[in-house]
Design a protein that fits this description.
CATH architecture: 3-Layer(aba) Sandwich
Strand order of the largest sheet: 1-3-2-4-5-9-10
CATH superfamily: Alpha/Beta hydrolase fold, catalytic domain
Helix content: 40-55%
Shape: globular
Distance between the termini: 33 Å
Number of domains: 1
CATH class: Alpha Beta
Structural class: alpha/beta
C-alpha cells in the first residue's frame, strides 16, 4: 500500500487504545452513543473503511482481505502495537481476521453480530460467486442499489426510518444518531449518504466466500474473545454461535433480547455494559 495514510476518526478518551470497526453501510458516527461510553474507559479510534475513502471504486476488491490489510496498515502507521479490537458486522470479520493473522497486536477482541456463517453457507456462496450470480442472488444487493441517496433534510430521513419495521427497537435518540451518522451535507443545503450504494452492494457480494480461513484458524486463537448477538438477528445465527462454541469453547457468547443485527446502534447501553464488564474481567 506504500505511503497511503489510512483515514480514521479519533474519539478521544483515556486509557488503553481501543479500535472500533464499523459495519458495511454504517460510518463510525452512527455508533457515537456506544462510543461515548467506551471513551470513559478507553482511548477509542475508528478506521474509515475503504468504501468511505475518497476516490476508491468498488471493483478494486474481490474479497474482504484488503479491508483487514488496511486495518493492519493503519496500526503500523499509528505505531500501535497492542489494542482492544471491537467490530460490528463486517467490522467484526475485519477484526477477527486481523487477530488471527497477528494475535500479538490484540489484548482482547469483541465481535458484535459478525458476518460469520456456517461452512455450508460458505460452500453455497462459492457456487453462486463462481457462477457470476452474486449481484442477482444476494438478498440485500437490490435494496442497496435502489436506496435513496439524496434527502432534503435529516428530519425527512428520520420520518421515513421511523416507519420501517427494522427500526422498531430503536428509541428516537438512537435512531436520530443513526440517521445523522449516515448523512453528509451538500453545498445546496440538502444531504446525501456518506456510504455509496455501489460500495455497499460490492461489500455484500465479495464477503463470505473466502471465510474458510476463519473456521480453520479460530481454534488456535488464544486471546480473550467475546461475541455479542441480537436475539432477532439474521446474520450471526444461533447455529453459528453453537459452531463457534464447539471449536473455540472459551468464547464468551452473549445474546441481547429484543434486538437485531443493528444492536450496537439500537441498544448501545446494553452493549456497552456487557462489553465493558468483559474487558474489566479479562484485562
Amino acid at each position: 500500500m506504500g505511503s497511503i495514510n489510512i483515514p480514521l476518526l479519533d474519539f478521544g478518551g483515556k486509557g488503553q487504545p481501543l479500535h472500533f470497526a464499523h459495519a458495511n453501510g454504517y460510518p463510525p458516527d452512527c455508533y457515537v452513543n456506544l462510543i461515548k461510553q467506551l471513551t470513559l474507559h478507553y482511548h477509542v479510534f475508528s478506521m474509515l473503511q475503504r468504501p468511505l475513502w475518497p476516490g476508491t471504486i468498488p471493483e478494486e476488491i474481490n474479497d474482504w482481505y484488503p479491508l483487514t490489510d488496511d486495518f493492519l496498515h493503519l496500526l503500523d502507521e499509528q505505531h500501535i502495537t497492542s489494542i482492544i479490537g471491537i467490530g460490528h458486522s463486517m467490522g467484526g470479520i475485519v477484526t477477527l481476521r486481523a487477530a488471527l493473522h497477528d494475535p500479538s497486536r490484540f489484548k482482547a477482541i469483541i465481535l458484535i453480530d459478525p458476518v460469520l456463517f456456517p461452512p455450508y453457507m460458505i460452500l453455497f456462496w462459492n457456487l453462486i460467486k463462481h457462477l457470476g450470480l452474486g449481484y442477482r442472488f444476494h438478498p440485500l444487493v437490490i435494496g442497496a442499489l435502489r436506496r435513496r441517496r439524496q434527502f432534503d433534510s435529516i428530519e425527512s430521513l428520520m420520518r421515513g426510518y421511523r416507519r420501517k419495521p427494522i427500526f422498531k427497537y430503536f428509541d428516537d435518540n438512537n435512531l436520530m444518531t443513526l440517521v445523522k451518522g449516515l448523512l453528509k451535507p451538500c453545498v445546496d443545503g440538502t444531504f446525501e449518504l456518506q456510504y455509496s450504494p455501489e460500495w455497499e452492494a460490492r461489500i455484500y457480494v465479495t464477503g463470505i466466500w473466502h471465510d474458510w480461513d476463519l473456521w480453520r484458524d479460530l481454534p488456535k486463537l488464544k486471546i480473550p474473545l467475546m461475541i455479542i448477538r441480537g436475539s432477532e438477528t439474521n446474520t450471526f445465527l444461533a447455529s453459528t454461535a453453537r459452531c463457534v462454541k464447539r471449536i473455540h469453547p472459551s468464547t464468551r457468547l452473549e445474546t441481547i433480547e429484543r434486538s437485531t443485527h443493528l444492536l450496537p446502534i439500537e441498544k448501545p447501553d446494553e452493549v456497552s455494559k456487557i462489553l465493558l464488564s468483559f474487558l474489566e474481567e479479562v484485562l
